[in-house]
């Protein structure tokens, strides 16, 4: 296998971890503020919806975090990388379980990442591999949290503003917090993907800018179209979501996703992918992904056109006179521009990735795939012959970058087109 070079933990990783926990706390605080305002003003239905989104998002994120913790503990010598004095990954399993039950597991992961990063970067202690591993898990958890809470909450806030024809300060704060969370997720996730390239200089910050613009320009009109549809037919948006979510989950199942290490965990992953696809495309399987991406965007474009046409037909012409025509023209053009930026990315910035990582032949076949030690991988400050690698993020990076597919159940590679997220 061709050797691959992975970056060590740096001060930029530490800054990203600190900003990540700050955005998480600000987003959480704004959610509590908005929920309190809804309750105080007697808007109990919107209060219930907002609290429901918060609870659902938290439970899903905690479940993923706990599943991954269980998988990782099955790996040989994993405790040697974590140590008993870490905040979350020590030997205190019952304490970790309690933290997840109390919905504090995600926050403790943030604290763990900052603590480990400080020890590695500032105090120059060992543990760079584990610090990088923690940041990759956090990046994926932020992705899940964003589409389980921030994107639906942003839709809800826009819907409330359209429905009441009023804009309060607390609503603007919530919209700003949700938008910031989505923006930060996009930047952070792409940074984690880039860390798996053999030479990150091949893909600079220009690629991150185009990646960010394409995702923003595709997600924004989707959220707006859903909010507009909800403003005229609020009783149908739940049915619309459930039908599309069910179809997306079946599609994920048909693609034979193999991301988690248990049957229950895999169905949780597919259900979450169905939710993500309701807002944005996310590649989850190897193979000819270009065709799947075209099918998805064609389907979402058609659905968005139906949502906008329905809103235009049922809208109040007087209340919406000042913005209706502008939105009808701007939203489709914005989505089209997002598709053009996506095409630009794959034409000009998408690199050819090294061959996907192969399992060390000395390891047992039934070893969980959550984290695997790979040989022939050099790290910039490494004196070890093997590296603790976050296989979950490596799997996503392979789907996103590689022109080769790898079967997680075998050691054989198979040809695949460049993946699209």
Which structural traits does this protein have?
421 residues, mainly alpha, two-stranded parallel ribbon, two-stranded antiparallel ribbon, 6 strands, 5% strand, disordered N terminus, disordered C terminus
Q: Mind explaining what this structure looks like?
A:
With 421 residues, this protein is mainly α. Helix content is 66%, strand content 5%. A hairpin with a 6-residue loop joins strand 5 and strand 6. The radius of gyration is 22 Å and the shape is globular.
Helix and strand topology:
Elements: E1 4-6, H1 11-40, H2 44-73, H3 78-82, H4 93-101, H5 105-121, H6 128-164, H7 169-194, H8 205-232, H9 237-254, H10 263-277, H11 289-314, H12 324-348, E2 371-375, E3 377-379, E4 386-390, H13 391-401, E5 404-406, E6 413-415
Parallel strand pairs: 1-3
Antiparallel strand pairs: 2-4, 5-6
Helix pairs in contact: 1-2, 1-5, 1-7, 2-4, 2-6, 5-6, 6-7, 6-8, 7-8, 8-11, 8-12, 9-10, 11-12
In short:
By secondary structure, the chain is mainly alpha-helical. It has helices at residues 11-40, 44-73, 78-82, 93-101, 105-121, 128-164, 169-194, 205-232, 237-254, 263-277, 289-314, 324-348, 391-401; strands at residues 4-6, 371-375, 377-379, 386-390, 404-406, 413-415.
